[in-house]
Description:
Layout: H1 3-37, H2 39-50, H3 54-77, H4 84-122, H5 129-162
The protein binds protoporphyrin IX containing FE.
Protoporphyrin IX containing FE is lined by residues 9, 12-13, 16, 20, 65-66, 69-70, 72-73, 76-77, 89, 93, 96-97, 99, 153, 156-157, 160-161, 164.
Amino acid sequence: MDILTMVLRVLHIFGAVAWIGATWMVVFFVEPTVRALGPEGGKFMNYMATTRRYPLYISVTAAVTLLAGIVLFGIHWGPVWNTPMGLTFLIGGLIGIAGGVTGGMTGGVTGRMTKLGGEMAQQGKPPSPEQLAEMGALQARLRSLARVTAILTSIALFLMAIARYV
Ligand code: HEM
């Protein structure tokens, strides 16, 4: 019985489900809803990021997926990386890591949005045009980074799913 591989596979696959599921949820449902709600959407986003700690959740699920995947690859596929199966896991893994990088970049944008949202809420007067423009630019950047992350992680998932049968 290979307990280490079983534990790593459970961590890798549960992590991937939690990470990709949340990314799709944000791209297809949360972000469009937040945008449609305007200032109320900003409050929703703020609560999700600070009280519910969404950035922490997404960082942990991504890190667990990637680290467990890298160790699994090292144990089982490193020595045979140049077989069709090994190569498919390798290319999928590299694309998944790229998704981890773009996903990590969303953390910085979310942090700035949360800080700016807090300043706007506490200043006791309506937001200035500069603040609104910065918030709009941050939202657009978050939108594109989240989409790129969803695409990269989905390609990685696709390649991992077919790797054993190529
Ligand atoms: C978005 C990122 C990722 C997703 C969604 C993902 C998803 C999956 C899934 C669903 C499986 C099960 C497929 C099967 O065993 O037939 C799997 C297996 C595997 N993944 Fe990933 N993965 C990701 C990232 C990575 C990374 C970065 C690596 C490192 C190179 C990696 C290496 C592996 C390996 C080696 C296996 C097979 C494990 C074994 O030998 O049983 N994965 N992955």
